[in-house]
Amino acid sequence: MKAAFLTPAITLFREDGTLDTQSQAHLYDFLIEKGTDGLLVEGSSSEFFAMTMEQRRAAAQFAIEHVNRRVKLIVGTSSMVASEIVELSRFCLERGADAVMILPPYYFHFGDEALLQYYGTLARQIDGPIYIYNFPDNTGYTVSPEVVLELARTYPNIVGIKDTTTGMDHTREVIKAVKAARPDFEVYSGLDDNLAHNVLDGGDGCISALCNVVPEVFARWVRAAREEDLSGMAACQQAVNRLMDLYQIRSPFLPVFKKALQLRGVVQNSISTFPMPNAGGDDDARITEILGREGIACGTSKKG
User: Fold this and answer.
1) For 4-229, which CATH superfamily applies?
2) Is 239 helix (H, G, I), strand (E, B) or coil?
């Protein structure tokens, strides 16, 4: 059974707000060593929305150089300024990124015709693979299966979608609509606990934040799917269901995931961009308990 998991890697910062490339390198190496099939940088989990364009170019350049084609690398180039999307996408693709991923416009809601025009305009100006990023909880509306199908038929360089929707209803309809017309079009779920449902429905896997913290669990899950080991898939599904409790510790969840990685000894700190609240010391025990019941030990923080 076809299956893959890609990690939307978090971005690590120092206290002064600059990029912590040392911790970032440790994280990329950790994820690759634990079996991730690819990395997405500058997605929602990367806090791209709070980074300057200069920081975003620097973060993309660092990822491209450090990952060095060991795994697939997608860079999120979303912006509300179309020229910035095109410029950043060209920058990343020319330097060696495998693809870019782009949200639809946010703040206002856009209809089907406007979305066809939007993605079509970008696809004609970007010489490289593009993934659509559908995230209705954060944009306020969804990219319909009909729009995805029309874009897939019209633009060969639109190669896939990350569909971050609750449940599988929308993703299932995208798979049904698009795979028949373009079997190579990749459909990933954006929520961790939908991986098994996605691949059973004919999709390609997931791009989900929890695998920053526990990539080894997702690697086992994907291996079980590829071997058509239903018992193994069920065991991993249930483990991920329990690990989803990490999302409930605080909102937004990103500082919790950073703290979990710090507790695992992977990164040096759990600092987030303003106005994201940092994880509190009282979160440590809950994180340790959730990871511990799955046999994932927390040790001392990485010191450099």
Assistant:
1) Aldolase class I (3.20.20.70)
2) helix
